[in-house]
Write a structure and sequence with these properties.
With about 220 residues, this protein is of the alpha/beta class. The protein has eight helices and twelve strands. The strands form three sheets. A five-stranded parallel sheet has the order 2-1-3-4-5, sandwiched between helices. A four-stranded antiparallel sheet has the order 6-7-8-9, covered by helices on one side. Strands 10-12-11 form a three-stranded antiparallel sheet.
């Protein structure tokens, strides 16, 4: 699964160059020219890491805003200007940055720093997840509902595993298409809907219990 990076860079040429080169490294890069756009993308797409050209963006991500729901703990690397002084990294860390780099940044060093921060921030995946009567065993790649084994195809299992990692959270369509199918940009496809529908039928227990909940216009979650 490729990590999703949010690149907040106002200069178009630099943004395009970084997006291309980081994409070649296997990252899924979302570009934003302004802080407002970056915050909207952070809320909608839930990136794994933010590359910020402004310390203020890091502070806004950490502090949150009323009515907004981005991940306030998302890792942030600040890319400081060439003319930055020795106090700028201190200010960045005081505002919640996970790392700081002066420009110009060597590409190999930037990639290494990104991967190091992602390793530090990534929680170890649970080998076994339980949600009500549902049990997902990632090691054995097995699924049971109420003790009954359920056979799933590869992508169905990956979709279920992603939803089960946080059963009541709504995962956006963009996140799921990126994390399960590796799509690098949102596109019009019924792949997610058709897999979710088949998965729901296979997990169905009857009655009123619902697994794989469609949150209209947003995405899916495992349980209400």
């Amino acid at each position: 699964m490729s990590a999703a990076l949010l690149l907040a860079e106002p200069e178009a040429h630099a943004r395009g160059s970084l997006t291309r080169r980081l994409g070649e490294e296997g990252f899924h890069v979302l570009g934003a020219a302004f802080s407002r756009e970056a915050l909207e993308l952070a809320e909608r797409s839930r990136p794994d890491l933010v590359l910020a050209s402004e310390v203020d963006l890091c502070a806004r991500l950490r502090e949150g805003e009323p009515g907004r729901s981005w991940d306030r703990e998302v890792p942030v690397i600040v890319l400081g200007p060439e003319e930055a002084d020795s106090r700028d990294p201190v200010r960045a860390f005081q505002r919640g940055a996970d790392d700081y780099l002066h420009r110009p940044v060597a590409h190999d060093e930037l990639v290494a720093r990104i991967r190091a921060v992602l390793r530090r921030s990534a929680p170890p995946p649970a080998e076994r997840v339980e949600a009500g009567k549902l049990v997902v065993d990632r090691v054995a790649r097995s699924v049971t509902v109420g003790g009954r084994a359920v056979g799933l195809a590869g992508k169905e299992f990956e979709l279920l595993s992603r939803l089960a990692s946080d059963p009541t959270r709504v995962f956006t369509k963009e996140e799921l298409l990126r994390d399960v199918w590796g799509y690098r940009a949102f596109c019009r496809t019924r792949t997610l809907e058709s897999h979710a529908s088949r998965l729901r039928r296979k997990l169905a227990l009857g009655g009123d219990e619902r697994l794989i909940v469609n949150v209209w216009g947003v995405g899916y979650k495992l349980v209400d």
